[in-house]
Amino acid sequence: MTRPLLILIGSAVAMFACVGLAVEDETTLFFGLRLPGSKPEIFAPGVVSSSDQVEMGCAASPDGKEFYFCRSAPSGPDIAIWVVREKDGKLSAPRVVSFSGVYRDFNPFLTPDGKHMIFYRDSFKEAKTQRGSWIVDRDGDSWGEPRYLLDEYCVSTHDFHTFYFNSEHHKAGNRDLEMRTYDKGAFSEPRYLKGSLNSEAFDAHGVISADGSLMLFDSMRPGGYDKVDMYVSFRGGDGSWSDAHNLGESINKGHRQMPSLSHDGKYIFFSSEGDIWWVSADIINQLKPPSDRSRGEK
Predict the structure, then answer these.
(1) Residue 279: C-alpha distances to residues 39, 43, 126 (Å)
(2) In percent, how much of the chain has pLDDT > 70?
(3) What is the residue range of 279's domain?
(4) pLDDT of res. 24
(5) How far apart are CA 154 and CA 165, in angstroms?
(6) How much is the pLDDT for 274?
């Protein structure tokens, strides 16, 4: 790992220690759009979710003013990271972010302070690069130059100490959810996440919540409502993971994958049928262990 990246992670750890989780008025949190209920809806149809291109994988900024997503491009790489911004209750036209559009970039994740994005990058034709997860830091309203971070795919973190990701270490040709810790300038060896969070089937696209209390992911395990369903697992105070809970038929009726969670934990975003969808996260509160639920009500 290069020294600039070590400096970046060190400064990020300091920022995470003092970042506040401010929440704006709900009527403006997500671009003034009508908020979803318990039934999934297509997110920003005609702007984010288009009729002639494929959108997948997304991340909303902590202040609810920017929305990043992957879209198949009409020219250049077959997939890039795009962004729309809200100003005065109106959405901007979507555009490719400054650091994307040369290589294949997808699966964006925004850190809880909104200052860093982790995404996966791969080569595209003659444009060769190191395949893996990259990180880019933000300075004011602009993004800097991405730096290589890890080999693994679908990386997320809530504290810049524990990094969760997909791997194929345990199931050849399949996926599992694992973690590495970052300490004293280096990453640990990958560790398998124990409990029912992983199964013998495909388990992937895990994303940790902003407070580190839960993980959303998708799985092809038996007992679901479709080929791929979304699940949630809750992290205990000792670091252990609860049983994996299916998000239910009303949400998982259809091919649902690549979940994302709003910064305040109120909305779930996911990919399905070539579009970005969203739904209320009330189901997560209903599935929480009673002790966690009572703590959240204090």
Answers:
(1) 6, 9, 40
(2) 85
(3) 3-297
(4) 45
(5) 5
(6) 93
